[in-house]
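TA notes, week 10

Several of you asked for a full example with nothing omitted. So below is the full record: structure tokens for the whole chain, then the designed sequence directly under it. When grading your own attempts, check the secondary structure regions first.
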């Protein structure tokens, strides 16, 4: 039987991938639903590396019409920006928020989201972890 404590590092190239479809695929890997040993109350051993996050694709007119809201907690502290501007300024924040919305709202969600590593370009510092690699370059 395979040792359940071994870490699996999965690299996904986000170039040209649709935001929502990519986020659902990432959440499946983070939760460990791709393994036969899946248990909803256990932390999976999967880590996900996303490269080329600045080149994700969004369908329709969401780049101009969809707005992302943030609030500072102070009176009048509501800020909003379009999805297109948010992807240009910080693409990892947009993808992380999308994946976080697809994870269960429990104690494991913060631990799971820390296992997601997002990089705007093609280079990342996790090449040594990918020796036991499971690549997903779709």
């Amino acid at each position: 039987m395979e040792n359940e404590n071994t870490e699996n590092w999965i690299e996904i190239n986000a170039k040209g991938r649709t935001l929502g479809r990519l986020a659902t695929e990432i959440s499946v890997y983070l939760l460990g639903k791709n393994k036969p040993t899946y248990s909803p109350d256990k932390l999976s051993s999967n880590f996900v590396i996303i490269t080329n996050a600045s080149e994700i694709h969004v369908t329709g007119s969401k780049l101009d019409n969809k707005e992302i809201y943030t609030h500072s907690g102070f009176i009048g502290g509501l800020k909003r920006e379009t999805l297109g501007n948010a992807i240009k300024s910080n693409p990892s924040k947009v993808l992380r928020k999308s994946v976080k919305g697809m994870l269960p709202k429990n104690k494991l969600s913060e631990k799971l989201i820390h296992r997601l590593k997002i990089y705007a370009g093609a280079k990342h510092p996790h090449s040594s972890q990918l020796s036991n690699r499971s690549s997903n370059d779709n």
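The first helix runs from residue 19 to 31. Use that as a sanity check on your answer.
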